Amino acid sequence: MTKTSLTRRILPLLAVSILGLTACGSSSVVTSPSDAFTINGEGYSKDDLNELIDVLVDLGQITKENGTIPKADMDSTLQVMVKYQSYLQFAKKNNLEESAANRSKVEEQAVADENFASYPKPLQDLLVNLNLASLTTSEMKAPSAGDLEKLYNKAPASAGVLCLSHILVKTKAEADTALKQIADGAKFADVAKKVSIEPAAKTSGGSLANGEEACNSLESLQQSFDGDFMVGAVAAKPGVPTGPTKSSFGWHIILSHPYDEVKDSVASVLKENPGAALLAGFMATSDITLNSAYGTWVSATAKIA
């Protein structure tokens, strides 16, 4: 990170774009009218959200349209704050410490930006805290092999890694038939080669491997795969064919591979960025709910509908 990157990076994320977020298979709305969202029962108030939005409007980072905040701007702001509030719980659960040295480093980078001093104090604090969270997470180490196995077996998404195969067909009836064949003893890959309409399945057996890696990071899948498919993928239990799941491409039977079959790839993918992957996994298995005034939080994609 360069000395002037902090506010240039974070403010657009708050006002325009979306942080790489990740999240489990349900869609949720909040019931308390005073909360913008809740994470595992802990609320973030609408008042706090509105104060942040007002600051961004005053700074020209958000422009109202007919007196209202554009949905895209509201969504991106909410997603940033959901991720940060999730990080606070994640850090506490994993005993992550934000070191004084890292805070000083982030603060030095902040004040080097010529615009930083003009921002209101609450926004200055938020920008520093967001960058400190990113730095702290980036320094996190991967869990032990035993702990990783427990995470994956509880819910693969909780490890921030998914190792998937699928069968894609045109109709639900075809998907039901494929699922029955597997239940009756047919191998998943053999059924995929025979009936899947995905061209690669003829040789891959339906594997969604990433090159030589059997697994993918949850974040990368959320960014590139159909949202409805991800709902099924995140919900799938290791070794249990799941479906039928409907997506924009057709009907899927999804297999999340057992840990023993993919453990080396799970560890390899997680090693690339342990903190980010595990935070994604934490969000994937947390109860994140959104006030219905803002839409619906779709956990499998970590996006707002």
Automatic annotation (TrEMBL):
It holds the Pfam family Rotamase. GO terms for molecular function: peptidyl-prolyl cis-trans isomerase activity. Residues 164-258 form the PpiC domain. This is Unannotated protein. It comes from freshwater metagenome.
